[in-house]
Amino acid sequence: MTAKLNSRKKRRSWPYKINGLLIIAPVYFLYTALNPEFPDEWAEKTVGPVTVTPRPADLNPPYPHEGQLQKDFSLKFCTGCSDQFSTAHLSVGARPAPMNAHLDGIIHGHGDNLHVHAPYPHILRPNDRLWLTLKTWDGKTYHTDWPIPPY
User: Fold this and answer.
1) 3-state secondary structure of 26
2) Whole-angstrom Cα distance, residue 52 to residue 132?
3) By CB distance 3.0 to 4.6 Å, which of 34, 50, 69, 143 could disulfide with 81?
4) What's the CATH code, domain 45-147?
5) Which candidate, 137, 136, 120, places its Cα nearest to that of 128?
6) pTM of the model
7) CA angle 92, 50, 145 (to 5 degrees)
C-alpha cells in the first residue's frame, strides 16, 4: 500500500518541478540581460587629433550579413573628440580599406561612445589588422591599427 502511495506522490510531483523551472528561467534570462558581459577593451591609441579605444561587442566570431562577414565594435573616443572628425571608418585587412559609398564600416551613433559594423574578410590572414580611418573637417585623413586576436 505504501509503495502505491509513494509512486502516486512521485507522479504528482512532476508538475511542481516544471512550474519551478518556468519560474526560474525568466529570472535567469532577466539577470543575464541586465548584466551583460563584454570583452575587454583593446589598447587606447591616438589617431590624428583624438584618442580612441575599441571594444568588440562580444567574443563570438564575425557573423554573416548580406553576403559578407561583419563584427560589431564599440569605439570610445576621448571626451568631446567625436566633434573633431567628419567621418570615421573601421575595416579589417592588411591595409586600411577606402571609405565606400555603401556605408560598410562607417562609425555611427551619438556622443563619444560610437558603434560600427566592421566588414571582415572570409579568410583572416596573419597580417590582417583592425584599421581605423578618420577624416577631419579640414580634409586630413589619419589611420591607426590594432592586432586582431584569434576567435
Assistant:
1) helix
2) 9
3) 50
4) 2.60.40
5) 120
6) 0.77
7) 20
Name the residue with cell 580611418. Answer: 133
Q: pLDDT tens digits for 111-138?
A: 889 999 999 998 989 999 999 999 999 9
For residue 70, CA distances in Å to 39, 77, 114 come to 17, 21, 16
Long-range contacts of 138-144 (CB under 8 A, 24+ apart): 140/48, 142/47, 142/48, 143/47, 143/96, 144/45, 144/46, 144/47, 144/52
Answer for the pair 108, 74: CB distance below 8 angstroms, yes or no.
no
Q: Which residues pair with 75 in a beta bridge?
A: 54, 114
How, if at all, do strands 113-120 and 68-77 pair? Answer: antiparallel
**R_g of the chain computed on alpha carbons:** 24
